[in-house]
Amino acid sequence: MTSVVTPQEPAHLTSSLLYLDDVSVSFDGFRAINKLSLSIQPGEMRAIIGPNGAGKSTMMDIITGKTKPDTGDVLFEGTTDLTRLDEAAIAHLGIGRKFQKPTVFENQTVEDNIHLALKSDRTVLKNLFWGISADEQAKIDKILVTIRLAADRDRLAGDLSHGQKQWLEIGMLLAQDPKLLLVDEPAAGMTDAETIETAKLLKEIARDHSVIVVEHDMTFIRDLGVKVTVLHEGSVLAEGPLDVVSADERVIEVYLGR
Amino acid sequence: MLTAKLLADRRGLIFLAILAAAAILVPALNLLTPEGSALHVPTYAMSLMGKYLTYAILALALDLVWGYCGILSLGHGAFFALGGYAMGMYLMRQIGPRGVYGNPVLPDFMVFLNWKELPWYWYGFDWFPFAALMVVAVPGLIAFIFGWFAFRSRVTGVYLSIITQALTYALLLAFFRNDMGFGGNNGLTDFKDILGFNIQSDATRAGLFALTALTLAAAYLIARSVVMSKAGKVLLAVRDAESRVRFLGYRADNYKLFVFTLSAMMAGIAGALYVPQIGIINPSEFAPGNSIEVVIWTAVGGRGTLVGPAIGAILVNFAKTTFTTGALAPYWLFALGGLFVLVTLFLPKGIVGTASDYLARRRAAGAKPEPVAAPTPDPAE
Amino acid sequence: MAHAVFLILSRILAVLVVAFALAHPAAAQTLDTAALAKGFASRSFDDVEKAVTQLAASGSPRAEPILRALNDRLLVIAADGALLIDKAGAYENAFTGEAVTPTAKPTPIRVNNKIRTTLAAAMGALTLMSPDRQKRLEAAEAVFKSRDASARPLLDKAIAAETDARVKARLIEARAAGVLLDQTATEAERVEAVATIRARGDQDAKGLLSSLPAEVPPAVKAAADRAITAIEAELALWNVAQNGYYGLSLGSVLLLAAIGLAITFGVMGIINMAHGEMVMIGAYVTFVVQETIRTSFPGLFDYSLLIALPLAFLVAAIVGMAIERSVIRFLYGRPLETLLATWGISLILQQAVRTLFGPTNREVGAPSFMSGAFDLGGLVITYNRLWIIVFTLVVFFALLMLLRFTALGLQMRAVTQNRRMAAAMGIRTNRIDMLTFGLGSGIAGLAGVALSQIDNVSPNLGQGYIIDSFMVVVFGGVGNLWGTLVGAFTIGIANKFLEPYAGAVLGKILLLVFIILFIQKRPRGLFALKGRAVEA
Fold this sequence. Notes:
The complex is a heterotrimer of chains A (258), B (381) and C (536).
Chain A: H1 10-15, E1 18-27, E2 30-40, E3 45-49, H2 56-64, E4 71-76, E5 80-81, H3 87-93, E6 95-98, H4 110-117, H5 134-146, H6 162-176, E7 180-184, H7 192-206, E8 210-214, H8 218-224, E9 227-232, E10 235-241, H9 242-247, H10 249-256
Parallel strand pairs in A: 3-8, 3-9, 6-7, 7-8
Antiparallel strand pairs in A: 1-2, 1-4, 4-5, 9-10
Helix pairs in contact in A: 4-6, 5-6, 7-8
Chain B: H1 2-8, H2 10-31, H3 43-69, H4 76-95, H5 108-112, H6 128-152, H7 157-176, E1 188-189, E2 193-194, E3 197-198, H8 202-228, H9 230-240, H10 242-247, H11 252-278, E4 280-281, H12 288-301, H13 307-325, H14 332-346, H15 350-363
Antiparallel strand pairs in B: 1-4, 2-3
Helix pairs in contact in B: 2-8, 3-8, 3-11, 3-12, 3-13, 4-6, 4-11, 6-11, 8-9, 8-11, 9-11, 12-13, 12-15
Chain C: H1 2-23, H2 33-41, H3 45-58, H4 63-71, E1 75-77, E2 83-87, E3 90-93, E4 99-100, E5 107-108, H5 113-126, H6 133-146, H7 152-161, H8 165-181, H9 187-200, H10 203-210, H11 218-267, H12 275-296, H13 304-326, H14 335-357, E6 373-376, E7 379-382, H15 383-405, H16 407-417, H17 419-424, H18 429-451, H19 463-476, H20 481-502, H21 504-521
Antiparallel strand pairs in C: 1-2, 1-5, 2-3, 3-4, 6-7
């Protein structure tokens, strides 16, 4: 590893909110993730960058339980082994995910989308009743304001613009009230104005949540102004502030293909 | 809250009103008017309409899983038939010593096969409450076990459709066997009484018709209250973006399992109402083609609308009766086949879905859009 | 039981008489034709039977044709009492062979079952010396089954004269059967006979050894018991092999039906519920080709299937392409809708064929190279099944080659793997879709030609295969031709090995349940592609 990598001291391990150690997974012989180690502190916002095929999405899949790693440890809050849990259970623990392609429930209203995401009992029987409590309604209203969609609450989510769908999805993440948010390319396909607005929104959120942002857009990362991890071929290539990382020879090589 | 939302459902109210009217009027016109009167509804016509209504319940049950949860079951005919067999077993036991062989316990076909004792799984079916329980329990249990395996291992889309076909096909083969103890090829028939009433009498038939119409109304209300609940929103979300639902922390499998089992039970009730009105249940009800036909009723009426599939079932079966009893009989399969093609190509939202889209466009903006829009096809499948 | 004993006794009696007659040719020179004719003409079955026995005993060269004619109900009595043989409307004198024109229509001689039995035995013995190898073989078998010691002199003579190794072996076995039951034979002779019969090693040999009378010496009995155990073990082994062969045969049928689906469903992802109807169309093309040949070019009948193959492929492919262009292409990416629409098409196609050809089964004949069977050790192998296995493998590998080595195959793989990329590279994806679907349908048509040989050609032919075919493709793993091959043979062989224990229907149910469970365990089949890409 290069000098940019800040070695983790053992004392930090227990206090890490998310801790990946020596994780590998391969698909039909292709190593998507190769001995990846990463740790996120409570309250931290981290940006993850890397070229296509660097393993960013697969890393998200591993953290959220969609993919099981072949080897390695994935610990949440120091004790919970995420590799043993399925998606729903991991979501319960407080890890929320926003996908690269905005995935909202297009045939339902904006308000219903938030309502579905709202932290509550997820069992079938508890949800067979109609209606919504005043407390829940208040939470929904607050989130709608935060994501700038209060006026569109009764529209079908499918009718929103691309940028609005991204916000709605972020709103759904907020409604889950997770301890850790995984946000995959939130600015993809956005106008410049929307991108700036999104960065602002994420910083607001990061005030009381831990966030991992995967992004290609360097200006966006710069706007966020947080620590950056560079992934390459399934492992960490460099880690540190954006300015330091982007000056790193190997990072330039990987990104510019020299 | 509940009543308010129900009242807001104008389409449903009209549907329920028509059903209530039918439940009263049709039996009245059958029993109270003299034969030959212009208003008289002959018993056979009433039973025919009763049959359509049982099909409507079946289509409604399918809509609950297909229209609202995206599970295209090609095996719902099996749950219908299982409910029918449970009812048929009760009716067989009611024959008592009046069978051809006069055996007070064994149904005729068992005497014919030289069986000495009633198989254990026939115990209890002479007692109506038990049989009625089995009408929902057997299809429900099979759907639960099947769904438990299928949903847990994330079998979705066409794979699920194909294995539901295999399920009904396996049951078809099984029920054809004489040693299964369900009458083999001939099935169960020659019924005499139901709850002490002569099954052939006009009054019983009228009662069965009214019961079927009311059951359809009840099935509608149950389905409606499920889809309007938060769980219904989850189901819709599962249909449109299943993995997103999982990442929100919902166990999509459990929701699917719940609605699949509920739907199978409704199908079982439909089958149980079908058998006494038709007078026979045999293994051909398990034929894979039957289950696929239910899908076309649902599609014609408009999936994801609940009312639509019921209307579709009635319309298609009315057309079938008209066709197959006249000179056009050889062309029925052309018509049915053409219906499959045309509906999927040109009317993907069905009659009700298309009509309500049209009305919604006419009313234009302003009103709160209904969350249950007919599904747009999911290219990710 | 009593009837069976009687049959055996009468057969033994007949063979005895015949054997005696043949063993003493001097006694058999004169033929009392008048008495024989009178016997045959008698109304009493006993007299007729006596006449049969006498004729057989006479050793006359005419005995065989006369008895055969009687067996075929072609032996008739003219009004003047002359015995005639009916040669398809023309008549000849039974004893001289001269052509005769009777004045009135002659009456056929009636036979009952008892006479038939006597006749069979008599003919069996007579034909031991027949110049026709097949007839000698059958005769040797008949004597083996009659287990008659007194036929031994005749058998010895036949064995000495026999040049064909197989017939000779059968004759020696027949002789051994007689020796084994002969109380006058020495113990050593009888033990040796057991060994000969043991070497034969089939069900009949086992039957003979296990029904020895109580009088046999203990040494013979012990040898027989050992032989039975050995034969049983051997038979069990052959039985396994035979089941394996049946399984292979069923597997090849499944593969043939599923292979086109492996293209349309496995490669293109189209749920074509009308796939079975493509098979049906292929079978009807075969029927039409055969009808045309039958009426216009009867000499070509043996080539009918070869002629039908390209035609069936073409017709099914054209129908398939028409379906793809008119319906399926509007439904890409909507598999459930495709399923429904193609189901509708299958109903239409079935009804169309029903309207054109009627609802009943149509007769498709087998060319000579596909009829009959041969023995391979303890296996019975029918030619039609064998050819279907060969044909299936040829089709399979030809398809594999086509996909791997031709430009069309390359383009097909390109389009199915990355449609947009392929389009960007100048491949006309629409055309490839159409051709791929046409190929899958055409192969189904080929399957129809083969299946017309073993299944009823009716409008419902295809329906019987559709669920099985999907099971095979899904079980084997979608998008993998080798998976389809392994899937088909696994299911075929498993089915045939389950059948003896569970019965045909229950076996099939068990298999369906197994596959349902299997798919739930491995939703992507035996040979699944793994990784992120497939879940998209």
